[in-house]
Specification:
The structure holds 2 protein chains of 2 kinds. By secondary structure, chain A is of the alpha/beta class. Helix content of chain A is 28%, strand content 22%. Chain A is built from 6 helices and 9 strands; from the N terminus they run βββββαββαβαβααα. In chain A, strand 1 and strand 2 form a beta hairpin. The chains are: A alpha/beta, B alpha+beta.
Chain lengths: 180, 574
């Protein structure tokens, strides 16, 4: 059984995948009406971020969840203070989050980058390639697409044609190496 | 399960005139086949719902059509070896009904595969360096190119190395595989546009700048479908070293800002139309400037590696005129007609480009039987350095045939019903599969094409009419390119009846234009008659060798409308 937890306002159970495994989540998603706890790793909405950072300081225990339509400029001033950025995937067919992840990484963010939504195991390689570390999916999906499927999905794209994406390497680089 | 007799069938000394897959390319497509085999298994066991499975089967070319699945195989930049053509024939025999359908986007469609067989079919394709990757779905589709690439007399540079370079870059892209909508790229290297670059999401034209450097004129936002648009130039000159970076910038802007609220407004043409080309250009340039370009530093060397595969075949030094050809033309009138219509100028003296029409009178446009595919494979081994092309007009090209061999080739083709001398003529009709196969269609297309070609079955009359493109789509999605046909026919459904809207003045070339509607729709059996009236009017009015589109532009749309009105008063029910 996947490790699951009560998420955002307790509406939906989520499973967390990291390095091809279902793992326990040490972050807690705070509902908007929930008061800010004094400590502990929490994920909050962008609207609450300034206040939370002021109240608790930037100790890497604050993460933010953003829409995939966010303009990266809004995040740049606080990037270094964040311990986690979660990008919402409203549906698996909506690929905007992949481009936003690339922009977040390009802006220099080095912390945990999480894809949150109904992402399919078949998209794991895309997510990793665009710079995500972890994927969080609803429990019902995790029941159908179990840990075995995610683990094997992390290996289905051994090499990509594109350079500059994070994966086990580009075909171009492998070619150059083979030619030497 | 695999087919393995192809290598022995194929001519061993066939020169390598197109891209040669290396082990990395082969591994890549084998990995994709294995992935899809697993996805089919997971679909059948229930790990993937049909909705979840859909984008992955589409990205592997598998559609669910009206009666069955349809598998669309990519023929990148329209180039095919004899060995690959034989494999297509073998697949048609083994897993389908013994034929295939060549499409307007340089793909081949099988209309009757079973889901469970598809991974085996993909594996059989992979064995000959072929695939069905990204022939469908909301991703960057199979890149198309001028079918005369590398042999045309009017070429700045062969566009196929660029097309292959783009095929690799766009395959299984981590960032751009879940776009708002499909994304089509076409490229031409010639001074005549045979690739319809103005009717694609991105059109690329090879150009030379003032200092003689070769680069690309980049066009975006063209497209047909229910809202047709002619593409707009976003940048006049992108140097080759920056091409992939520039395209990545366009894709990122589109992926982020393309509409996702309405699938009919999700193509980049709508984004360009709604925001304006200046806004999009500014956004792309901003992204291009902000990008990390180090990932692209190896591009020029990689391009050279790809381009080195496209070596010209070992042409002989020949006189430009062939007395053998001249003699055969005098002796055999039918061959003479074929040469006049289906043979084009080659850049090398003594050689010719041969178009094999897949539009026999009363036939299904673009269909070829497995026997015909094998005949074409054998013919190009014997007469054409083992290379074939597929054109967006749904015909097959033998790009390098010695003029001395034309008669022998014609005899071979004629014996297999492949010598219809109508390339570019009024019966060389582009048509989508329509309601006979397609679940999107609102009307039949194929029977309309057949009826028109019947009406003009007198070949002498066709030659007198000259080049005239008729294009038929069975619904507003416009797969039959009716918007850019000199005469376009669009099949709609009105109150349970098929109704055909006719448009005039479409042009796929550099002077691209969208056709204008002639009047109210007509019924299926009226279409040939209406077209005949229009053609007769054109013949009466044209100046010497003036093309239909030029006569239409000179006289104006209203004059053509009048023809129909007058004919209607004469008793025809139009």
């Amino acid at each position: 059984m996947p490790a699951s937890r009560t998420s955002y306002a307790g509406r939906e159970k989520m499973a967390l995948i990291s390095k091809g495994e279902f793992v326990a989540d040490d972050w807690r998603r705070l509902a908007d009406e929930e008061a800010l706890p004094e400590n502990g790793k929490i994920i909050i909405s962008l609207e609450r971020l300034d206040n939370a950072l002021k109240a608790r300081g930037a100790n890497g225990d604050i993460g933010v969840i953003v829409d995939n339509t966010l303009e990266i400029d809004k995040l740049i001033p606080v990037l270094a203070k964040l311990g986690l950025i979660a990008i919402a995937f409203p549906s698996f067919a909506d690929g905007r989050g992949f481009s936003l992840a690339r922009l977040v990484r390009r802006a220099g963010y080095r912390g945990e980058l999480r894809a949150s939504g109904r992402l399919l195991a078949d998209q794991y390689a895309h997510a990793l390639g665009c710079g995500f570390d972890t994927v969080e999916i609803p429990d019902d999906l995790a029941q159908r697409q179990n840990e075995t499927q995610w683990r094997s999905a992390s290996k289905t794209h051994q090499r990509t044609y594109q350079r500059g994406y994070l994966s086990s390497g580009s075909i171009l680089d492998a070619r150059r190496k083979a030619m030497q | 399960m695999s087919l393995n007799n192809t290598n022995t069938l194929s001519r061993i000394n066939s020169p390598k005139t197109t891209y040669q897959y290396d082990e990395f390319d082969k591994d890549f497509i084998r990995e994709r086949v294995a992935e899809f085999r697993e996805q089919v298994r997971r679909r059948l066991e229930g790990s993937l719902t049909e909705e979840e499975f859909r984008p992955f089967r589409l990205m592997n070319g598998l559609y669910l059509q009206l009666h069955a699945y349809m598998l669309r195989v990519a023929i990148p930049y329209g180039t095919l070896t004899s060995q690959q053509m034989r494999r297509l024939a073998e697949i048609a025999d083994r897993w389908d009904k013994g034929y295939g359908h060549f499409t307007t986007r340089q793909n081949l469609q099988y209309n009757w595969p079973r889901l469970i067989d598809t991974p085996d079919i993909l594996e059989a394709l992979a064995e000959v360096d072929m695939h069905a990757i990204q022939t469908s779905g909301n991703c960057i589709r199979n890149v198309t190119a001028d079918h005369f690439a590398g042999v045309a007399a009017d070429e700045i540079e062969d566009p196929r190395p660029t097309a292959e370079f783009l095929r690799q870059w766009s395959s299984a892209h981590p960032e751009f595989s879940f776009l708002p909508r499909k994304f089509k790229i076409a490229i031409t290297g010639a001074t005549h546009d045979r690739a319809a670059t103005l009717a694609h999401d991105i059109g690329l034209r090879l150009v030379k700048n003032a200092s003689g450097e070769i680069g690309y004129c980049v066009i975006i936002g063209g497209g047909l479908g229910r809202s047709p648009f002619i593409g707009k130039i976003i940048r006049e000159f992108v140097p080759r070293s920056a091409l992939l970076a520039y395209l990545e910038a366009i894709m990122r802007v589109y992926n982020r800002y393309g509409r996702r609220d309405n699938k009919y407004k999700a193509r980049i043409k709508i984004l360009v139309h709604e925001k304006g080309i200046e806004t999009i250009r500014a956004a792309v340039e901003k992204e291009f400037a902000a990008m990390d370009h180090t990932a692209f530093q190896q591009d020029p060397q990689e391009f050279e590696r790809v381009a080195a595969s496209f070596t010209p075949p070992p042409y002989e030094i020949l006189p430009s005129e062939s007395s053998k050809l001249a003699k055969a033309r005098v002796e055999t009138p039918a061959f003479n007609d074929f040469v006049s219509v289906n043979v084009s100028e080659h850049k090398i003296a003594g050689y010719a480009i041969v178009t094999v029409s897949l539009k026999p009178i009363n036939g299904i446009p673009g269909d070829a039987t497995s026997h015909q595919m094998c005949v074409l494979a054998d013919a190009c081994d014997r007469f054409g350095f083992g290379e074939l092309r597929v054109s967006h007009e749904q015909n097959i090209i033998l790009p390098h045939v010695k003029k001395d061999d034309l008669f022998a080739l014609w005899q071979t083709l004629d014996a297999a019903d492949l010598a219809t001398a109508n390339a570019g003529l009024v019966s060389d009709i582009i048509s989508c599969p329509g309601l006979d196969y397609c679940s999107l269609a609102t009307a039949r297309s194929i029977p309309i094409a057949q009826a028109i070609s019947q009406r003009f079955s007198d070949m002498a009359r066709q030659r007198r009419i000259g080049k005239l493109g008729i294009k038929i789509s069975g619904c507003i999605n416009a797969c039959g390119h009716h918007h850019i046909g000199a005469i376009g026919v669009l099949g709609l459904e009105k109150k349970g009846q098929e109704s055909y809207q006719i448009t005039l003045g479409g042009d796929p070339g550099f002077s691209a234009s969208i056709g204008e509607i002639l009047g109210p729709g007509v019924s299926a059996d009226q279409v040939p008659e209406v077209i005949e009236h229009l053609v007769d009017f054109y013949l009466a009015e044209r100046h010497e060798t003036e093309a239909f589109i030029d006569t239409w532009r000179r006289l104006g749309h209203a004059r053509f409308k009048d023809v129909l009105r007058r004919e209607g008063e004469d008793g025809a029910d139009i």
